[in-house]
Input
Amino acid sequence: MSAILVQPERIVMPRGLVPRQPARTGRQDKVRVARTLMSAKSDHQQSASSRDARGPKGAAERKASPSLAKAQKKAATSAKGYNPVAPERVAEILKRLNQLYPDVTCALTHASAWELLVATILSAQSTDVNVNRVTPELFRKYPTVQAFAAITPEQLEPDVRSTGFFRNKSKSVVGAAKKIVAEFGGQVPDDIDKLLTLPGVARKTANVVLGTGFKKAEGVVVDTHVHRISRRLELTKEDDPQKIERDLMKIIPRDRWILFSHQIIWHGRKLCIARKPKCAECALENICHAADKTWSTVEIHKGAKA
Ligand code: SF4
Output
């Protein structure tokens, strides 16, 4: 019986790509710069020694070596001249997000600004899927803001228990309903200052309600996905959501604030996930220098991480 030899399948990488697993330490920083300089220096030394052998004119030629000067200039530009929030880079990120997620919107099921407000309060420390499981029955049981205002937080608790932190959330929802009925004529206000007076409503919730419920761009929603991905993409160095929002508002055109948040939230769910981002599948890969990438064709910036 003759044995059949099966050749192992060869992985052929596209030209120009240098994939690698970046270490979490981010020590690869400037690795490409260093290599560029080293190879230019060794080229330069080789050609200098052959020129020196030809006579004293060689030293002057070496001084003016274009390859070393070019590499040094490239290294200096790469190390110092890189601006992660340059308008062209931000525009490129927005363009690619548009191609990836052209028509995305809020994933919380709702039929009114009030329902969106309730769903957003319930979504804290929970998933949209989890909230969407609870809200249809909740809104059947309490169909209006007045119905929520007429109950106690304790009555609401069993209905929202599965979303977690149900005592605080019940207090916030019932408290917000009572205030909206008492002070805003039963209508969710479309004003950020008024929204921020409601119990359980901070800037993130207010921006969701204004952006998705009223189509008003008053700020950028900074949830856990926007927080993580903005840092990975070096759009901010901040860790505090309010400061991140302030940074994003400076570099993203106002007419993109609402869509940008939705797109980044979808990107965070599908690819740029917290623990193991799917960098090999990501359309932003070659302009992303995040230190916690799982695959990279570009240099890593150790400060760029979630
Ligand atoms: S390349 Fe990786 S870390 Fe960067 S945005 Fe894409 S998935 Fe996130």
About this structure: The pocket of iron/sulfur cluster is lined by residues 232-233, 271-272, 277-279, 282, 284-285, 288, 290, 293 (CB under 6 Å). The chain has 14 helices and no strands. The radius of gyration is 27 Å. The chain has a mean pLDDT of 83.
